[in-house]
Amino acid sequence: MAAKKIRFWRNPWTIGVGSILIASIITSGFKAVVSQVSPLAALKWFGHGIVAILMFGIPIYVVLLVVLLVIIALDVATRPLQTPVAVSQPDYLSYTTTTYKRWTLRWGYRERLDPRRYEIRDVRPVCSCDCELGPYHSLPIPALECPRCGKRYPVFSPEDADNAAKVIEHDIRHETYKTRPETLKGLVA
Ligand SMILES: [Zn+2]
Questions:
Q1: Residue 102 burial class via C-beta count within 10 angstroms: exposed 0-12, middle 13-18, buried 19 and up
Q2: 60 pLDDT exceeds 50?
Q3: Does residue 74 share a domain with residue 134?
Q4: What is the 145 CA–ligand 1 centroid distance (Å)?
Q5: How far, in Å, CA of 184 to CA of 8, rounded?
Q6: Chain centroid to CA 86: how far?
Q7: Ligand 1 centre from 134 Cα, in Å?
Q8: What is the Å distance from ligand 1's center to 171 Cα?
Q9: What distance in angstroms lies between residue 135's CA and the mean position of ligand 1's atoms?
Q10: What's the CA gap between 115 and 118, in Å, rounded?
Q11: What pLDDT score does 31 carry?
């Protein structure tokens, strides 16, 4: 009986059919779990497996091996392709406001990919009440006016914006932005 059993498992036909069967069980089970089909479909797949085991008299160690392979396959398939790497951002990105001459300024940053660094963008004056300023059409000297509280400020020229950006860059390079009291309110804790 034992010899017959060994002959059965060494038979090329058994090995061939067995391999296909095991592969198909793994594949369908894999698909069922990955695509998260209904419990009924999973049960059906499980039923097919049981029928196959009974029909071919597959020994328990083969069944256990198949189960183990399925678990390994699922573990590999559901593992994220790449562990996300936490990209640390520089502290100064929270430095977005300061005072310059008679203006309170605000700005943002634009990321440059190569080399990875940030550039200052959209430097503009805001009101001391924190509202963005609009133009005030007065003659002969135009001005900026706060649409919220009506406070007026000198016009902020593109040259002023360039110079302010240079001061901001200097603050960042020398890390003085960390201690300047007027900038602290712009820092996120
Ligand atoms: Zn205002």
A1: exposed
A2: yes
A3: no
A4: 8
A5: 80
A6: 9
A7: 10
A8: 26
A9: 13
A10: 9
A11: 62
